[in-house]
């Protein structure tokens, strides 16, 4: 039995392949092929536009797929969310669907769009948002390069942005945020009801989320004399508790932070996992508190 999984082609393709590689799935593909090869015989991968994946998952052509919440909503796809995976092309942040106008436009809020023309790739989501806010406007489909249409072709756009840099470069001003969108591993309901496919999907999700979680964390190892252990532990973060183990033949001389010889001190090794952002400032503190032989190392997967 195989699980047929749709992966996004285009903006998310490289980031998705890198995530799968970190999770243990080596994917290779010919530049003209839409059928990637993966080192898991239980997976059958198809590469297609993220905009289409939720529809094919909904219809059962795919057992599952990876696409943004925005495209799941745009397709009105009735699917099962297996995992929320916050990653995108350039940053680990959610995408935003925003309404933007020209910098010098007299449109300052959603109500000002009454009777106006709006361009978007996400026509259905945009129409619903405007209707929910009591706005009657013409929403037309945009085939791309949506930012350049304001103000000459349309009055406003509803467009996805990751960093806002493209909007700023085209002298556009955001007047509202319609939604935030993260990448979703989602499944067809019939496939989710199949015990084998559900377990396979859950295992894939476990590894993918473990890989994402690892990107924000690092491991730290260090050696510490018994005399300094409590001081070190008082400043050392961890996921639960640090791992402490006695060094073999640990009765050897060391030095305190002020250089004093610690003759025949008994030593332990400490290992912990912490947020990467903490490590830079923590390592000098640990050194000052008496830790030695400090090693920081990256992680591939973190699974609580």
Tally the helices: what do you get?
9
CATH topology of the largest domain: D-Maltodextrin-Binding Protein, domain 2
Low-pLDDT segments: none
Class from helix and strand fractions:
alpha+beta
Radius of gyration: 26 Å
List the topology elements:
Elements: E1 3-9, H1 13-23, E2 27-28, E3 37-38, E4 43-49, H2 53-59, E5 64-68, H3 69-74, E6 80-85, E7 95-102, E8 117-120, H4 123-132, E9 138-141, E10 156-161, H5 165-169, E11 172-181, E12 183-187, H6 189-193, H7 195-214, E13 217-225, H8 229-233, E14 243-246, E15 252-255, E16 261-265, E17 267-275, H9 276-288, E18 292-298
Parallel strand pairs: 1-4, 1-5, 8-9, 8-10
Antiparallel strand pairs: 2-3, 5-12, 6-12, 7-10, 7-11, 13-17, 13-18, 14-17, 15-16
Helix pairs in contact: 1-7
Can you walk me through this structure?
The protein has 304 residues and is α+β, with helices and mostly antiparallel strands. The protein has 3 domains: 3-91 and 183-214, 3-Layer(aba) Sandwich (D-Maltodextrin-Binding Protein, domain 2), CATH 3.40.190.10; 95-181, D-Maltodextrin-Binding Protein, domain 2, CATH 3.40.190; 217-298, 2-Layer Sandwich (Alpha-Beta Plaits), CATH 3.30.70. It contains 9 helices and 18 strands. It has a 5-stranded mixed beta sheet with strand order 4-1-5-12-6, sandwiched between helices. α1 crosses α7. The model has no long low-confidence stretch (mean pLDDT 92).
């Amino acid at each position: 039995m195989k699980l047929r999984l749709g992966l996004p082609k285009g903006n998310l393709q490289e980031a998705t392949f890198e995530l799968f590689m970190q999770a243990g799935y080596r994917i290779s593909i010919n530049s003209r092929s839409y059928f990637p090869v993966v080192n898991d015989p239980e997976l059958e991968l198809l590469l297609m536009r993220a905009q289409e994946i939720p529809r094919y998952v909904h219809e059962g052509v795919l057992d599952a797929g990876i696409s943004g919440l925005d495209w799941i909503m745009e397709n009105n796809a009735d699917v099962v969310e297996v995992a929320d995976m916050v990653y995108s092309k350039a940053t680990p942040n959610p995408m935003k669907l925003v309404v933007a106008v020209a910098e010098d436009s007299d449109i300052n809020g959603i109500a000002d769009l009454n009777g106006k023309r709006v361009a978007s790739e996400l026509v259905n989501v945009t129409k619903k948002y405007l209707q929910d806010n009591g706005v009657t406007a013409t929403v037309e489909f945009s085939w791309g390069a949506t930012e350049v249409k304001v103000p000459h072709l349309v009055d406003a756009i509803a467009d996805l942005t990751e960093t806002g840099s493209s909007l700023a470069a085209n002298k556009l001003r955001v007047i509202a945020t319609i939604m935030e969108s993260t990448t979703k591993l989602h499944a067809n309901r019939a496939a989710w009801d199949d015990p084998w496919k559900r377990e396979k999907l859950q295992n894939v999700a476990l590894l993918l989320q473990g890989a994402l979680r690892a990107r924000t964390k690092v491991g730290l190892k260090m050696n510490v004399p018994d005399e300094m252990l409590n001081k070190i532990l008082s400043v050392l973060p961890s996921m639960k508790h640090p791992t402490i183990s006695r060094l073999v033949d640990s009765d050897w001389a060391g030095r305190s932070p002020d250089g004093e010889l610690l003759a025949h001190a008994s030593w332990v090794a400490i290992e912990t996992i912490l947020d990467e952002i903490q490590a830079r400032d923590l390592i000098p503190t640990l050194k000052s508190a008496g830790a030695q032989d400090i090693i920081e190392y990256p992680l591939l997967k973190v699974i609580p």
